Amino acid sequence: MIDTKKRIVVLLGPPGAGKGTQAAYIKEKFHIPHISTGEILRDNIDKGTPLGIEAHKFMHKGDLVPDDLIIEMVKDRVRQPDCAEGALFDGFPRNEEQSEMFFDMEYVSTNAKVCAILIDIPDEEVINRLSNRRYCPSCKSIYNLIYKVPKNKDGDSYLCDNCGSELVIRDDDKVETIKNRLKVFHDTAEPLIAYFTKKNVLHIVDGITSLEEVFKQIVNILE
Ligand code: AP5
Description:
alpha/beta
């Protein structure tokens, strides 16, 4: 019998674990739309929408944006036709309350198979990775000045390998903000992970190895 359930993949892990990086690989291999709540919020900030103006108050400090704003945003996104056969969530759910809302959403509770993948890395590596991250504001490609170096430069600026745009440093990648984001992760992670464990859908991968090795572990889980 053909399995017609929607495939829902959830990437969990601390800031800098490699969720966005691996999401791009998963999207390409498994043809699942990538829903990054951080990315949707950053787009809203860039466009100056009411959601963006509100979200910026929290994001620039590294705090979480209120749950009600996030859940409305996610519900809106999964109504789009590209999500009919499944979706890859990156950065959502983020705490116990959002986990409850996630599993209660009709999109998830009806005819769906959920697989959550926690990318595990130690705190020391988070600061190292995020302080060297560069990102493309146009096509959203993610680089690292140590681990995934962009090929081209224009003067002092790095350019995106993919679309040639000038790469930028994310507003929340300042060391003090990274430290707060890590604290917020640790304050919320335990009940979040316990929630997914209780649902029997959690897999843990070692995130401290190469980009390719992390992806291999994920493919083994998803295939
Ligand atoms: P969000 O955009 O979700 O950020 P995050 O969870 O903090 O995660 P990052 O995007 O920083 O890291 P990542 O794990 O994707 O790592 P990446 O692949 O880039 O959220 C931002 C903010 O939005 C939050 O702080 C909050 O305010 C708000 N928000 C978002 N969702 C929310 C929600 N649901 N509720 C409330 N608020 C919400 O990799 C990092 C770096 O490491 C890169 O340079 C990369 O090249 C490198 N790298 C990756 N993998 C490897 C590897 N294996 N080896 C070496 N380098 C690697």
